[in-house]
Amino acid sequence: MISSDCNGTLMFPSESETIKNDAFLTKLEKKVVSLSEKYGLGEVLFMERNPRNINSSDTFIIRVPEDWSSEMIFDVWEPIAFEVHDFARKEGIKNLAEICHVSVSNRY
């Protein structure tokens, strides 16, 4: 575990029981890791939904360097978001946001 707060527990995906027990999240983790490698980004973290906070959700976070500007993050986020949603549709998921989120961030 990297940290825990009101939004959830931040950890490496391999530490998450949620991912280990969910076939789609396991596949999505592999996809997100491959996208991080494809775009030359950093490690992938997973934040588990906090059941006590209705505003939290399971989230994959792709790390980028802390000094990246918002523009640089958006430039890489857009193609990643498209590929993630396309992957989810091919897996039969109509609304990925109901299951989890994928983000690219320099804040973690």
Give the topology.
Layout: E1 3-5, E2 8-11, H1 17-20, H2 23-38, E3 44-49, E4 59-63, H3 70-90, E5 101-105
Helix pairs in contact: 2-3
Short summary:
The protein is built from 3 helices and 5 strands.
Structural features, described:
Helices cover 38% and strands 21% of the residues. The two termini are 13 Å apart. It is built from 3 helices and 5 strands; from the N terminus they run ββααββαβ. Strands 1-2-3-4-5 form a 5-stranded mixed beta sheet. With 108 residues, the chain is α+β, with helices and mostly antiparallel strands. The model has no long low-confidence stretch (mean pLDDT 92).
Structural Rg:
13 Å
Task: State the order of secondary-structure elements, H for helix, E for strand.
Answer: EEHHEEHE
Q: Cα distance, first to last residue?
A: 13 Å
What is the averaged pLDDT score?
A: 92
- Classify the beta-strand content into a percent band: 15-25%
Assembly type? single chain
The total of helices stands at 3
- Pick out the low-confidence regions: none
The largest pleated sheet is described as: 5 strands, mixed
> What is the global morphology?
globular
Spatial strand arrangement across the major sheet: 1-2-3-4-5
**Backbone structural class:** alpha+beta
Total E-strand runs: 5
Helicity, as a percent range: 25-40%
